[in-house]
């Protein structure tokens, strides 16, 4: 083989650029992806922990639970309303437009709908978890609404009844002591 034929077999700069770019991209992905996935994992973990803390703080308060349920209902109604409005606007605006313009309008009009749906689904998942945790409240449930103040007459009658009960209990203890002494 002559030198001319051998020089045709050697790779040129044009042939080396694509593999070099692919190699650099793979190396960069290998270095960057673990860091990014670790950061995303930490963010997700923090999000779950903050949700659990919020659930723990409000799971015993029926008013806070009702507020969260009302919030979910309001977000769902807003989602449905804005979906109907945006789809109606989209149908009216894009009647006689080119397909690319229709796609542009569709992406612009549907962005708020998708954001609202995402927000509603997050609140819905939170509420499902909250309701599961609130069902485990059990006998330690404390009433948040303060009790009604009782009248002075009723409080006095209660104190008298408690004094009578204490008196009879002390008399029974004294009788037990006397009987125990007799038996001994």
Quaternary structure classification: single chain
| Tertiary shape | elongated
- Mean pLDDT, nearest integer? 85
Radius of gyration (Å): 37 Å
Proportion of β residues? under 5%
The biggest beta sheet is recorded as: none
Order of helices and strands: HHHHH
Helix and strand composition category: mainly alpha
- The percentage helix is over 70%
Helical stretch tally: 5
Number of domains: 3
How many β-strand runs? Answer: 0
Unreliable segments of 5+ consecutive residues: none
Distance between the termini: 127 Å
Transmembrane segments: 16-36, 74-93, 105-123
Keywords: Membrane, Transmembrane, Transmembrane helix
Architecture overview:
The structure is a single chain. By secondary structure, the chain is mainly alpha-helical. The chain has three domains: 13-59; 61-137; 154-183. The chain has helices spanning 3-9, 13-58, 62-93, 99-134, 152-183. Helix 2 (13-58) runs parallel beside helix 4 (99-134) and helix 3 (62-93) packs antiparallel against helix 4. The longest helix is centred in the first third of the chain and has 46 residues, at 13-58. Keywords: Membrane, Transmembrane, Transmembrane helix. The chain crosses the membrane at residues 16-36, 74-93, 105-123.
């Amino acid at each position: 083989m002559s030198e001319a034929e051998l020089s045709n077999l050697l790779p040129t700069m044009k042939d080396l650029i694509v593999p070099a770019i692919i190699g650099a991209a793979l190396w960069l992905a290998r270095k960057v992806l673990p860091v990014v996935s670790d950061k995303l994992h930490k963010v997700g973990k923090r999000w779950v922990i903050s949700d659990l803390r919020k659930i723990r703080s409000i799971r015993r308060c029926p008013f806070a639970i009702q507020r969260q349920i009302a919030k979910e209902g309001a977000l769902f109604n807003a989602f449905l309303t804005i979906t109907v409005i945006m789809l109606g606007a989209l149908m009216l605006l894009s009647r006689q437009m080119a397909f690319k313009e229709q796609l542009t309008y569709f992406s612009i009009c549907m962005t708020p709908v998708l954001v609202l749906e995402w927000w509603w689904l997050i609140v819905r998942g939170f509420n499902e978890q909250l309701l599961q945790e609130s069902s485990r409240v059990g006998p330690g449930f404390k009433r948040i609404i303060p009790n009604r103040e009782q009248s002075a007459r009723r409080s006095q009658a209660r104190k008298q009844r408690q004094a009578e009960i204490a008196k009879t209990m002390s008399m029974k203890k004294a009788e037990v002591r006397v009987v125990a002494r007799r038996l001994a």
